[in-house]
Amino acid sequence: MNITLEQAEKIIAEAKSKSTALDTKMNIAVVDAGANLVAFARMDGAWLGSLDIAIKKAKTARFFDMNTGAIGELSQPGGSLYNIEHSNNGLITFPGGVLIKDAEGTIIGAIGVSGSSVENDHAVAEAGASAI
Amino acid sequence: MNITLEQAEKIIAEAKSKSTALDTKMNIAVVDAGANLVAFARMDGAWLGSLDIAIKKAKTARFFDMNTGAIGELSQPGGSLYNIEHSNNGLITFPGGVLIKDAEGTIIGAIGVSGSSVENDHAVAEAGASAI
Amino acid sequence: MNITLEQAEKIIAEAKSKSTALDTKMNIAVVDAGANLVAFARMDGAWLGSLDIAIKKAKTARFFDMNTGAIGELSQPGGSLYNIEHSNNGLITFPGGVLIKDAEGTIIGAIGVSGSSVENDHAVAEAGASAI
Amino acid sequence: MNITLEQAEKIIAEAKSKSTALDTKMNIAVVDAGANLVAFARMDGAWLGSLDIAIKKAKTARFFDMNTGAIGELSQPGGSLYNIEHSNNGLITFPGGVLIKDAEGTIIGAIGVSGSSVENDHAVAEAGASAI
Q1: What CATH number did the domain enclosing C82 receive?
Q2: CA–CA separation, C35 and A94 (whole Å)
Q3: Is the N end or the C end of chain A the one with fewer CB atoms within 10 Å?
Q4: Shortest CA gap C34–chain A (Å)
Q5: Could you name the domain of life of the organism this protein comes from (chains A, B, C, D) (predicted)?
Q6: What is the pLDDT along chain D (132 residues), one digit of tens a residue?
Q7: CB distance B15 to B132 below 8 Å
Q8: Domain total for chain B?
Q9: CB-based contacts of A105: which residues, under 8 Å, 6+ apart?
Q10: Nearest CA of chain A to the CA of B35: how many Å?
């Protein structure tokens, strides 16, 4: 199973809505089960540098099938996955990347959000992932 | 002046509609005046390899403020811009990248489309660019 | 549907057998439906430079759902896809990349072979793809 | 002396067997004395992001002729090799990369394993390296 564009667009719409509710401006990326981009939106005035971060967060979540923040806890100095970020042409391992699952719980893709605090980024990603 | 996300989404919707009318499956990318991605959509079943090409076409059009096909005529062996594709982390210089202008004719971004013949790619990009 | 490792290993075994029959030494790569590597083998004495080519051929075939040689016919100087090789971190568009389909004809991956003439590369790739 | 494909395949078979015994799903890469890929296998359901990590672990071990974890102890903040991971298009310096030696103790290649905890990754790499 793989995410459809219709599902990805519903997810982005919900993420935009949550971002507006939080008074933030986000870059929002959705990748499929193969970690390839399906849909993307950069809200007006969102940080340019967050464009790449949003895409890398979505890919990172799918690469390891967990939220990005969970990887970041292990990649700290002295941690078991220190500097894992150098793999896969660059990972982003702080919060804002969340898995997308279908009704049966199968992973069908991931969403990555960047543009505000990591707490807000994660909240917007969660809101998006919950849209389907 | 720069393209807004709302405009980019209108452009993508129109491009998707044209793509469906042509019975094709496209990757569609919209970049702003700074050649940075604003919105993207990969239609279900569209070629994976066209993801990167669609984005590169949009960037290429804005990099030189002309349709991608016009650059490709100059980059042939013996041409004045031979192998310009090696610059900017890779250009795509065949048709499918088209400038987006506002009502006054100011360039505010570009659209890149990939997934079918270059004729269809260009037609879908033109339809998208004409949406605003 | 996606290729399994068991299927990929059967394909590589068949490709190695064909390569030996042709008195060649090949690099053989198999990617899944997401164009990600599943299995790889470099036969003793095979060209080192063919390692990357074999992987790129497999990816290229899946990126556009056709044999690599078909793309190469369109990417020549003056062709409609001239210099498409600059996309996707480098394509290889001469023969040796072949799609892998299941019994129902669904594309589940691709094989890329490099190490001899393009005729031999293609013959080995075909032999591998026919193993399942 | 250099590793043969037959040896590399025996190593991968042993590593898969150990991985199954540990109830894990691994990406397994074997490089030769020149740090170039010889054989690779991604077990069904293994993390996509571990593909690149397994290959980088194998290369890293051979690049410096020591297990990857030993390098990671020196690359921490304040350490003598701080951020060495930036070299060679990206190193991975946590456990899971192990040297492969022949009967005389000569280094003939390296194995890299990724897909579980670093303890499991290392155990599977050790099992593989001990197969010859």
Answers
A1: 3.30.450.150
A2: 27
A3: N
A4: 5
A5: Bacteria
A6: 899 999 999 999 999 999 999 999 999 999 999 999 999 999 999 999 999 999 999 999 999 999 999 999 999 999 999 999 999 999 999 999 999 999 999 999 999 999 999 999 999 999 999 999
A7: no
A8: 1
A9: none
A10: 11
